[in-house]
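Reply to thread "Modeling small-molecule complexes from scratch"

Following up on the discussion above, here's a worked example others can learn from. I took a protein sequence and the SMILES for zinc ion and predicted the complex. Inputs first:
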Amino acid sequence: MRALRLHGDRDLRLETLPDPEMPGPGEVRIRVRAVALNFLDVWGFRGMAFAKRKLPQVAGVECSGEIEAIGAGVEGFAIGDVVVPYGAETCGECRACREGRDNLCENVAGILGFHVDGFARELIVRPARLVVKAPASVSFEDAACAAIGFGTVQHMLFDNAKLEPGESILVHAGGSGIGTAAIKMAKAIGCTVYTTVGDDEKGEKARALGADHVINYRTERFEGEVRRLTKRKGVDVVFEHVGADTWNGSLLCLKRGGRLVTCGSTSGVSTTMNLMQLFQQQYRIFGSFGCSMANIRQSLEKMAGGMSPVIDSVFPMERFAEGLERLEGRRVFGKVVVTL
Ligand SMILES: [Zn+2]
């Protein structure tokens, strides 16, 4: 099979590897059809120093594919089913796993494509319990965005921040993969959406997705604009993933008792904050990482119901690195998908 392996800093090579074994009991073998790119890939690509891993390593942190072989004792799958595998090596036995909260697994052995071999290869064997069947109407490109592109957002907005219909939300980086998904999901339940973008062209596109108020963070202080637009009340929820550059501004955008949920820190991992403001304003801050198996199912259902992920561009496997550079350079509006 062909596989895309990272050998070192920015050194991705398309190679031929032996096919994986046939699936054992409780496993399925998947023919990977599309891989969606994420900032996790960019970090990996840059040779992020703090990730414990062994190179070379197969890239790719989220994908879709079809069932190609089924191991003994596996039920609920047929050859040719479109599926989405979960992106982490969880134990399946700890309390969190048994309760379906795989992203809180006590014995997690790593994230695929980051700590251990990932999905950018033609064939992969996975435990059937970590594979979700997609409704037939969902395309491979869309389904490839279910585990992170949509799943992370579903988890942040609804499991953690408990976003309710009619509330107001500030979505940072409305042109990013998760930003576009957050705008769509929040609008779908009737929220008022404020979003930040880095240029006016992205602003127009964010508006077309349904964002009610678009703020160009390069020309305006977003926290001032949000306070002005909400008549100094602030918003119910802030959807954070920018990190150091926006953290304190994001807190200033919140209503008293507002919720901030974050899943990333692309601008830097450290900041300081005013603790008096935290408790006096009764903010609730949620760290969110990954999603549950249920979130993947919910994401695929949303896609089948007509809420497609915004896809910026599709590249063939040979041009994976080009897709990553596009993402790294923040030239994207939506997701970059690589097809196999
Ligand atoms: Zn576990």
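What I'd highlight from this example: DSSP finds eleven helices and 16 strands in the chain. The chain has a mean pLDDT of 95. Questions welcome below.
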